[in-house]
Amino acid sequence: MNEKTTKRKLVFATNNAHKLSEICAIIGDKFEILSLNDIECFADIPETADTLEGNALQKAKYVYNNYGLDCFADDTGLEVDALGGRPGVHTARYAFPDRYDPEANTEKLLQELDGKENRRARFRTAIAYIRGGEKYLFEGVVEGEISTEKRGDKGFGYDPVFIPENTGKTFAELGVEVKNQISHRARAVAKLCEYLAAEEK
């Protein structure tokens, strides 16, 4: 009988419950995903880089350097054409630089786009993975546009106002199951999983 029945453990450098459940749903049962809480990391890991990739690497490196565990981290940005690519790296703290307030973030975005015809936008996720000190980066992008008002009650963050291309519905209207198949994070995680599967061979 094959003894290799225990799943490989991977730390996902987050304590965001929404992100954690999304990632676990996308990855499925291939790996055991541990959160920062699970490894008793309660530090407020800095995200001070000026790129999504830089922030993701900062978080993954912190865990690897301090806990010696293989780890991946992500950072996601909403890039709106009419706003010159904002909020970008400031997506999570768009309304207030010192805290995460998804309602206020969404309201600020809708106000800034009020009256603008060009509502093109994209969500971009960068994932940094560190194994044995080696660093790897993966990216997922979904193009779309910002709605003129909030629609739907599923998901989190900007989901009620982001309409992924070719759907006509916001992420919040499409629901978590559909989002997990087509989202920026799903696309980045798919690349990570592909790489992890190749590693296991």
How is the secondary structure organized here?
Blueprint: E1 8-12, H1 17-27, E2 31-34, H2 52-67, E3 71-80, E4 87-88, H3 102-112, E5 120-131, E6 134-146, E7 162-164, H4 171-174, H5 176-182, H6 184-200
Parallel strand pairs: 1-2, 1-3
Antiparallel strand pairs: 3-4, 3-5, 5-6, 6-7
Helix pairs in contact: 1-6, 5-6
Q: Count every beta strand, where a strand is a DSSP E run of 2 or more residues.
A: 7
**Low-confidence stretches at least 5 residues in length (pLDDT < 50)?**
none
The gross shape turns out to be globular
Radius of gyration over all CA atoms, rounded: 17 Å
Mean of all residue-level pLDDT scores = 91
Q: What is the number of helical segments per DSSP (H or I, 4+ residues)?
A: 6
- Cα separation of the termini: 19 Å
What helical percentage do the residues reach?
25-40%
Beta-strand percentage range = 15-25%
Instruction: Return the string of H and E elements.
Output: EHEHEEHEEEHHH
The SS-based structural class is: alpha/beta
Query: What can be said about the biggest beta sheet?
Result: 7 strands, mixed
How would you describe this protein?
There is one protein chain. It contains six helices and seven strands; from the N terminus they run E-H-E-H-E-E-H-E-E-E-H-H-H. Helix 1 crosses helix 6 (184-200) and helix 5 packs across helix 6 (184-200). The radius of gyration is 17 Å and the shape is globular. It starts with 7 loop residues before the first strand and ends with a helix. The longest helix has 17 residues, at 184-200. Strands 1, 2, 3, 4, 5, 6 and 7 form a seven-stranded mixed sheet that branches. A hairpin with a 2-residue loop joins strand 5 (120-131) and strand 6. The chain is an alpha/beta fold and 201 residues long.
